[in-house]
Each structure stands twice: as C-alpha cells, then as structure tokens.
Design a protein that fits this description.
Keywords: Acyltransferase, Transferase. By secondary structure, the chain is of the alpha+beta class. The chain is globular. The longest helix is centred in the first third of the chain and has 18 residues, at about 10-30. The strands form 2 sheets. A 4-stranded antiparallel sheet has the order 1-2-3-4, with helices on both faces. A 3-stranded antiparallel sheet has the order 5-7-6, covered by helices on one side. It has 4 helices and 7 strands; from the N terminus they run βααβββαβαββ. α1 (about 10-30) packs antiparallel against α2. The protein is about 35% helix and about 30% strand. It has helices at about 10-30, 35-50, 90-100, 115-120; strands at about 5-10, 55-60, 65-70, 75-80, 105-110, 125-130, 140-145. A hairpin with a 6-residue loop joins β6 and β7 (about 140-145). The two termini are about 25 Å apart.
C-alpha cells in the first residue's frame, strides 16, 4: 500500500486538479456512459460541486493523487484516484480517514460500475436503496457505512 498524506484543502489549483482527475477517471470507469456527459459537467465540477464540498486530498510529495468530496456531513459525493495510481490503497486510505471525521457515510454508485461497488462493499458499505440517476438514467445503488 502506497503511503500518502491526506489533508483538507481547497485552493483553486486543487479544485482544478481534482476536476481533471474526476474527468479522466469518470470517462474510464463509466464506459457505459457517453464521455460527452462527463465533459458537459466539467465546468460545474470546478465552479459548484467541488467548491461546495469538504475536499480531502491524497498527496504524495505535494502531488494530488486523488480526492474525496463530502457534503452535508455524511454524503460521499466523489472518491476519485488518478488512474495511474489505481490499486495502490489510496481509496481505502481516503475512506479510512474521512470515516474518522464522518461516522456515517452514504454514497451513490452506478450499478454497472462493479469494480467500485465491490470496493465500497469491501470497505463496509451496505446497500440501502437504488434509483435511476437523474442525469443519465442508469441505476445508482445507494450505499451506507455506519
């Protein structure tokens, strides 16, 4: 497992880097959704979603490798790791860190993103509901960790 530092920070540069990671990873893992959907939401990620979240950065030598974004003191809106750093334990370290701050976490994950579903279940999240995504129509699973 790669050893990283996790900090809460939100500079404009951080937000831009996180949005870049989000876009690249989203296109790769959500192959069942046209990439134009993700590209269309990019500016909203930079101007709205990330700035309104509590942003936790996974850093190595001050380089952002990934991030977690939490809203409403319990909703994990985003957990994205740059693809070149996948499968190095960074997502688990971010989950472990934010779980110490937020004892209850909920999230939505696309049902067809089986790798992410498996990851979250391994981290102790359980299925509590499902619903169609209002943006794509694909089924999202609502998971919770207590």
């Amino acid at each position: 497992m790669k050893k990283i530092d996790i900090i809460q920070r939100q500079t404009l540069s951080d937000i831009q880097t996180c949005a870049d990671i989000w876009l690249e990873a989203s296109i790769m893992v959500h192959h069942f959704i046209d990439k134009s959907i993700w590209q269309g939401y990019y500016s909203s990620m930079v101007s709205q979603y990330l700035p309104s979240s509590d942003l936790y950065l996974a850093l190595e030598s001050n380089q952002i490798l990934g991030f977690a974004a939490v809203t409403n003191n319990k909703v994990l809106e985003a957990l994205f790791i740059h693809p070149i750093h996948w499968r190095q334990g960074i997502g688990k370290q971010l989950i472990d860190h934010i779980s110490q701050i937020y004892p209850v976490l909920t999230l939505a994950v696309y049902q067809r993103n089986q790798q992410a579903v498996n990851f979250y279940q391994q981290q102790g999240f359980i299925l509590i509901n499902s619903k169609p995504c209002k943006h794509t129509g694909h089924t999202e699973l609502i998971l919770e960790r207590v």
